[in-house]
Every structure is written in C-alpha cells, then in structure tokens.
Amino acid sequence: MKNAVCRFPLAVIFRAVMFVSAISFPMLLQAQSIKVDGRFGKVSEDEVKMTEYPQDTSAAAIVLYEKGTVMMEMHSDGTLVKNLYFNARYKILKEQGTEYADFEVPFYWQAEYKEHVTGINVVSWNMVNGKMTETRMPKSLVFEETVSDNMRCFKFTAPDVRAGTVIDVQYRISSELYWIFDDIYFQQEIPVNEIEYEIRLPDMFMFSKHLRGYLPVSYSESSGTGRFMVMGNSFQFTEIIHKYRGTDLPAMKKEPGMYNARQYMSAVSYDLMSFQIPGYLAQNFSVTWQDVDDDLLESSLGKAMKTVCPFKKEVDAIMAAESGDEDGLIMAICSMVKENVAWNGKVRLYPGAVGTVVKEKSGSNAGINAVIASALSYAGFKVEPVVLRSRTSGFLLDYRPEMTAFDTFILRVETPQGKVHYVDGMSYNGYMDILPEEFLVPNARILRPGGRSEWVDITGLCRNSIVYVVNAGISGDVLAGTVQCKMTGEESFSFKSEYKGFDTQDEFLSSLENETSSDIGTFSLSGMQGLTPACSFEYDFTKKVSFSGDFIYINPFLFEFHHASTFREPERKYPVDFPYRTMISYFFRFNVPEGYVVEQLPENIATTLESVGSSVRVISTGQGTGPVSLRYDFRIDSMRGDASEYEYIRQYWEHLSNIYDGVIVLRKSGEENR
Known about the structure:
The protein folds into three domains: 3-284, Sandwich (Immunoglobulin-like), CATH 2.60.40; 290-456, C8orf32 fold, CATH 3.10.620; 465-673, Jelly Rolls (Sandwich). A hairpin with a 2-residue loop joins strand 7 and strand 8. It has ten helices and 37 strands. Helices cover 15% and strands 40% of the residues. The relative contact order is 0.08. This is DUF3857 domain-containing protein. It comes from Candidatus Cryptobacteroides merdavium.
C-alpha cells in the first residue's frame, strides 16, 4: 500500500459541511504508548529495537509520529501561497509491512496555478550488529508521474527497508491554490502512535471546517499576530491557530460491506469561502455545480466527446446489418470498439486523446468511453457523459460542489425513439445498463452545457436475479441429478468476472465441487462470449447422502447464499453497503425412491427485514411417496443498512445461514417400519 502522505490519493478532497465556531474540544486522550521525539532525524535506539506495538500486536507497521503545519505566506510580488510543512516517522514491524516504504505525494499542476514539492528527505534506520545505521534516499530516486490533466505525483521508496526499519520522511508543499485544503486524516489504515497538526490562518479568511469520524482527537484554538507585505505596504493581521492531536489511534480496518474505509476515518476538512484585505484584495471562492460542469466540459473530457469517429467504415457496416434494432446497434458498436481497443485496467476521469487510444489499441475506461461516444454519435445516437464518484472512492455529497468531486464517467445513450441506456468502456462482462458494481451510485451527474446538467440515480438500471433449478433423486447411495442456473443483470456480470478469474474451467469446476460438496459430470456454459445481458450454466452431479438405519437424510441446498461469518463482529460503527439489489430463487425437485416415504421436510419460513427491504421465504411440499419440492426466494431492495440497524442485520444473516441446515428425512415404508 503506497503512502499518499498527508494527502488523499489523486487529491480527492472532502470539503466541510458545516460551520464550526471557535471553541475548544477537550477530549480524554491517554499519552501515546511510545514516547517519540518527532523532529526529523531524532530517532531513538528504542524505536529501532521495537518489535511490536503494544496497542495492536498484529500490526505490520505503525505511524510512530506525524506532524503537519499549514500556514499562509505572501511573496514580494503579491502572490499568496499556502505552505504545508510535513514530517512523519514509520516503524516497519513485520515483513509484510515493507509496503509502507512506498510513498506518493500528489500535487496540482495547472497552466495558471501550480504546487511545488521541495525538500524531500527520506532516511531509513536499522540495527546492524547491535548498532544504529542510517541510509539516506538519493534525490535521483524521486520520480515524477503525470496523473491527469491537472495532477502530477512524486513517487519514491525508502531505502534498505526490512522488518525493524524506522523511516523518517519530510517535505514541503507550496501551493498557489491557497484556497484548496486537502483533508487531514488523523486515523489511518495502520495504527497511529501520535499525530499533530497545526493550521494557521489569517483572520481575513472566511472558512468553515468539519470534524468527522468515530475516534476523538484533542482540539484547541488560539491566536497570534502575523504580517503580510502588500504592494510595498505592511499589513498586520490576527492569525487564528488550530491545533489537533491524537494518540494511540487504532488502524481503520475495512469490514465486510464497506467499499471505502477512508470515508469513516477521523479527519478534519477546511473549506475557504472568501478572502479579503481591505483596500487591496477581495476574493470569493464559492463553487457551484455549474462551475464544476463548465470546468469538465472545457477539459479534455468535454473535448473528447466531440471527437470525429475513427471507425466510420466499421460503424457503417454494423448499421447495415443491424437496421431497425436500436439496442442491437448500440451493443454491436460497443463490441466493435472493445474488440479494437483493450482496457488497460485503469479507471480515469479524463480520457486523453482519442487518436492515441485508437493507435495504441489500449486505454482507460475513460479513453474507451470517448471512442464509443464518437462511434455512437456517428450512428445517430445522442450521447452524453455521466460523471460519477465510484463507491470505492467514498461519498459524494451532492449538496457540496467540488471541482474534484468525480473520478470517472460513463455514457448516457438516447436512441432516436427516446429510449435511454447507460454503457461503460470497462464493462467487458456487462451489457447496456449493466455496470461495474462500484459505479452503482445514487448521485451521478449528466453533463450538459448551458446549466442543463442534472443528477441521476444509476443504482437500479437493470433487473438482477439468479434462478437455480435442481432436479434430483437417489441413485444407489448418492443423490444424483442436474443443476440449471441462469443469472441476469449484475448477477451475470458478477459470475462472468468470477469465472474469468480462474485460469481454466477445470479450476472453476474444482472450486464449485468444493463449494457444493459434490462431484460434477457434464458441464456447459452459455452467454459467456461477448457482451450479453445474461448467462447460464448446467451440469450433472452426484452427492453423498446420509443413511442411518431406516432413514435417509438429504440436504436440499447445494448452494449457500449467505454466511453468518460475514457479520461476525458483535458491534459496528459504520453502515453496511450491499453490492446491488437482487433476487435469488432456488427450486429443488426430488423424487422419493421406491420403498421410502417422506418423514420430515425443511421448515416453511417467511421472514422480512424492513430496514434493508429484504425478505426470505421457504416453502416445502411433499408427503407419502412424494415427489418433494422446495422453493427458496430471497430478495434485497436496499443497497445500504444503517449502523443503528447492524444488530438486526447480523441476526438476520445468521437466520439466513441457518436455513441451509434444513433436511429432508425419508423413512423406509415397509410394514415392519409402520
């Protein structure tokens, strides 16, 4: 895991959502477990000899100390600059913790405004033959990478890192975009021994701040005197000083049903709204969603949507073959583009040059979307970009406009007949309206010029379902039969992704046999090639059953769709996210063997959990010599459960998992057994 030191990867910023008055928040905080002199280079022998963190002995690495200071500076030419002075110290405790020796420092780089990263120093400390040694990282090992139209990133790796290493890092960021504040995260994905931040702002700044998260940090506010030189004149001001401190903050660990753990970390956001030096300078920084729309439409994203189609001949041929079938034409064009341009595995907002994507036959999802847009537009469809923030990137607050709110886009396609569909360039396992689950968000935004953009919910574009049909009977001492399964919508997407994750079909079948505790014979698949809305499989199977005296015990559930272990923790502070709304139906049909009668069937069940719009129903029928049938139906209509409902969700999942223990009991029907 690369350390995006003090800055959210790609500088995605959550802004403040409320005003906080100038008050102090005294919190009950213990002194940190490990005393540290946080000054750069002041590493103690005890820190290097340290072998485990008392507060979390499982930790592979910890933040021993982190300090950041943010303050404003005015240059002699009147340019206002925001400076971040940063230093941090990390302890690598286990070999798997060496990944925290990789660092990324993203920074803005625009034509008009820039950020400059200077003073990067990295030192690794180790114990060698009982003595402390230090290894400095050469400046030549700092590499610069272009991330997007307006973002760059410095990457570097601490030298000579192993279990036991202590790493010291420091640098400075000077930003001409002084009104943009990155979030400050006190909690991280590894434990934090001690963290301190100081924010120093002139009183002519109008700002709001927002503290969030579930772990408290101490906060205090004071003031001092500062001075700017403005047009040769000295201007004195009151400097507002905010100080934050946290100790022994546990690692933020991702839990089941959590797409982004970072959004729940303890953090603070600053939002600068205006700045005024009376008689000299006044600036308003309020942003509207139309400002965001206009910025995106003027960027390479907007320009790419106007690109001339590079596949005119291919589209002409498809139009001749698919005349009259609008949906078929859309998917045929999407398939053609994806056959000519491979997805490079990257998810981006800005597509780059369409010509380059076509020439290299490879591109990000944004690049492929731009090519698809040009082809569909050429074919007569109305195509618009739909920007979104993926679920893995955290919440998008639609009531808080931000220039960095979105991280990718898909396409809205309207046919001449007025039908609307959504497609995406990375969805090789999907279809129109079947998107990657991380793109299923309630607040995507259709970009349109002239203030006509609008929000759209793309969480329910298609019907998602799985239907299993099992026909079985007793053959000798085993249960034998056939399984048929059909998946639609997101369930189809999910299965295709899972299946293609195996190197061979034999590997997949071996996994399926382990899952179902059965032996699989003939196996067939359909709907797996190309872009399809559904897929299915069918196979023959045999499975051992339990004989005990005059009784046969048969578990009708070859598949278990829920597990109590998913939500094993007794408490949870965070909401539970579900992948998508879905329905699961399972039909089991069984012929009672000659000489046996039905003794017992699985219990009929009907249960609901209204807080997540879920229900489950089990109906078993059959008596005497049969036949026996069982029907299981599960549905969930919500994609999120509140943390306050967690105990009910946990109990519900445990109830669901117990359903799969139900058995069919058969008894010999001879006179001697009556």
